[in-house]
Design a protein that fits this description.
Number of strands: 14
Strand content: 15-25%
Strand order of the largest sheet: 1-5-6-12-11-10-7-9-8
Shape: globular
Number of domains: 2
CATH topology of the largest domain: BirA Bifunctional Protein, domain 2
Helix content: 25-40%
CATH architecture of the largest domain: 2-Layer Sandwich
Oligomer: single chain
Number of helices: 13
Amino acid sequence: MNKWILPEGIEDILPEQAYWLEIKRREVVDIFLSYGYGLVIPPLIEYHDSLLTSRSVDLDLQTFKLIDQETGRQLGLRADITSQISRIHSTYSNNEEVNRYCYFDHVVRTQNKESKGSRIPIQAGAELIGASDIKNEAELVILMLDVVKKFTVKKIFLDLGHVGIFQKLIDSANLNYEQKKRIKDLVKSKSSSEIKKYLNNIDVSNDFKECISSFPMMHGSIKNIRKNLDQLKSFNIDIEKDIDYIINLGNLVGAEHDNVQIKYDFCELQGFDYENDIIFSAYIENDSEEVALGGKYDCLENNTSGIGFSVDVRYLLKNQPVEKKLINKSGKWIVESDNE
C-alpha cells in the first residue's frame, strides 16, 4: 500500500486552483461586507455537544468524534458552521440584537455521499440572526445568488420551498422517527408509487396516504401547487399562509435577480434537519447538484430564529474554468498574462 494515498473524499488543492480560490475568497468576503456581514473564523474543533445543540440527527452522523487527551471529553470536527455561528451569537451578543455573520472556511464530514464526493467541503456562507421579517429573509437569498454569480457565468436556477409544510403534514399522523425519516426520503425522491407502497404497510388514515402520495407534485409552477391546496389545508390551515409567504419571497428575490429562474419545490427537503421553515437552493445550468443551500432555523437556548446559507465552493472549484491561470516556469509559479 502506498503511504501517500489520501483517504477517499479527501483531496489537495494545487497552486493553479488555490490561486483562483484565493481571488474568489477576497471577492466574496467583500460582497458580504457590502451587505453588512461580519467575518468570523470559528475553530475547526469543538466539544461535540456544542456542535450538536441544534439536535440534528443527520448532522451528528456527519460529525467526526474524538477524545480530548487533556480532559477526556468528546470533541467533534465541525461538519457544518451554522451551529457555530449560533453559539457565537449566543455567547457574544445580546439575544435581542440583530446580527449578521459570514464565513469562508472548511468543514469535515464522515461521509461523502451527501457532499458531492468531498468529505472536506469549503463553504462560503452567511447567517442573519434575530430578524425574521420577509425583507430580511429575501436579503439572504439575494446575497446567496450574488455569491454564486461570483463563481459562474452560467444560468442559475433557484428553488424555494418550506419544510414546515411537510412537517405539519407528517406531525398530523402518529408516526415514529424511522417512519418519518423514510417518508421524508421518499418524498425527496418524488416517487409517488414508492410512497404509496410504503404507506400501505403502516397504520395511517386514507386521507393522509392520499395527501402524502400526491405531495411529490408540489413543485414547479404555483398553478400546479395550488391544485392540492384544499387537501393540504384539511390537515393544517396555516399551510396556505406558508405557500403565500414563499410566493411573496420569490417576488422580492426576482425583482433583484431577474435573470435567475425561480421555481417552487415543497419536496425540497435537502440540508440538515435543524431547518424548520423556509428553505432554498441554487443550481447552475446543466448540473443536477445544488451549489448552494439555505434555510431558516431556531438558535441555541433562546427563542431567536436565524436564516442562513452556504455555497459549496469546492464543488464549484472543480467544475468552473479558472479565469487567471497560474503556471510553473523554471520552478517558479507565475500568473499567465493574456498575451502569452
